Amino acid sequence: MLSTINKYTLYFFTFLVLFSSTIDSQEVDSKKIFKLHVNSNEYGNIYIFDASDDNFILKNTFTGKPLKKTLRKLKFVEDDDIYAIKVFGKNEKYIYSIGIGNPFYANYTHIGFEDREYMGGPVKSAEIEISLPLNIEPTFFVISKRDITNKFNDIQKIELN
C-alpha cells in the first residue's frame, strides 16, 4: 500500500512539473514584480513636500538613501491617517497609497507631559518626505484628505516633470 501512495505522489509531482513548464514565459515577463518600500541600505527616489492645510508643493526630488526617520513614517494607509498620498504611474495607472497621518498636528514627546489631557497641538505647515523604490516611476501624486464620513477626498494633484 505504501508503494502505491509513493507511486501516485510521483505521478502528481511529475504532472505538476510538466504543467508548470508549459506556462508562457512572455506572460510571466509582462507582469513586473516590484518592491513597494525602500530600506535604509537602498537608494530610492525621495520626494519632499512643503504642505499647509490646503496646499501641497513638491519642493525637492532626488535619488539617495532615505533617512531612518522617514522610513519609520512610511506605511500604507491605516485607519488613523487623515491624509494620504496616492502614487500614479504611466497612463494614469494607480500604483498605491501612502498614509501620512496628520502632518498638521504635532505630538509632544517630552517626558513629564504624560499626565496632560492633550499631547500635542495644531501646526500651520509641515515638511513631508516620502521615499519610493527606484523601479517605481510616478508621473503624478494625488493628495487626499479623510472627511467626517471616513472617506478620502482628493484635494490636489501634483504633476511630475
Can you describe what's shown?
This protein is of the alpha+beta class. It has a single domain, classed as Sandwich (Immunoglobulin-like). The protein has three helices and nine strands; from the N terminus they run H-H-E-E-H-E-E-E-E-E-E-E. The protein has helices at 2-21, 25-30, 68-73, and strands spanning 44-52, 55-64, 83-88, 94-101, 105-107, 120-122, 125-133, 140-146, 152-159. The strands form three sheets. Strands 4-3-8-9 form a four-stranded antiparallel sheet, with no helix packed on it. A three-stranded antiparallel sheet has the order 2-1-7, with no helix packed on it. Strand 1 (44-52) and strand 2 form a beta hairpin. The longest helix has 20 residues, at 2-21. It is extended.
List the helices and strands and how they pair.
Layout: H1 2-21, H2 25-30, E1 44-52, E2 55-64, H3 68-73, E3 83-88, E4 94-101, E5 105-107, E6 120-122, E7 125-133, E8 140-146, E9 152-159
Antiparallel strand pairs: 1-2, 1-7, 3-4, 3-8, 5-6, 8-9
- CATH top level label: Mainly Beta
Distance between the termini: 69 Å
CATH architecture: Sandwich
Global outline: extended
Specify the helix fraction band. 10-25%
Compact summary:
The chain is α+β, with helices and mostly antiparallel strands.
Keywords:
four-stranded antiparallel sheet, 39% strand, 161 residues, alpha+beta, three-stranded antiparallel sheet
